[in-house]
C-alpha cells in the first residue's frame, strides 16, 4: 500500500478520491481535465442543464473517438498487409 498514491480528482464538480500507482497520476489528471473541458463545451453548445446528460454525451464522444481510431488503425493495417502481400508476390514470381 505504501507504493500507492492517494489523490482527489474532480469531474463535473464532484470530487473522487482515488488510490493509484504514482505513474498513473499525470494521465488521470489530464484525462479529468479533458473530460471537464468536454463537459463544459457540451453544456455551452447544447444547453444541457443536467450534469448526468453532459457526462453521458461526453462518454459517448470519447468512446466513439476511440472506436473510430481503432477502426482506422485496422483499415491501415489491412492496407499495409495487402501491400506487403503484393510485394511478396512480386518476389515469388522471380
Describe the structure.
With 94 residues, the chain is of the alpha+beta class. The protein has one domain (23-93). The chain has helices at residues 25-46, 51-93, and strands at residues 5-11, 14-20. The chain has a two-stranded antiparallel ribbon with strand order 1-2. Strand 1 and strand 2 form a beta hairpin. Helix 1 packs across helix 2 (51-93).
Radius of gyration: 21 Å
Tally of helical runs: 2
Structural class by helix and strand composition = alpha+beta
Question: Which outline best applies?
Answer: elongated
Task: Give the H and E element order.
Answer: EEHH
The percent range for strand residues is 5-15%
Poorly predicted regions are none
Could you give the order of strands across the largest sheet? 1-2
How do the strands and helices of this protein lay out in sequence?
Layout: E1 5-11, E2 14-20, H1 25-46, H2 51-93
Helix pairs in contact: 1-2
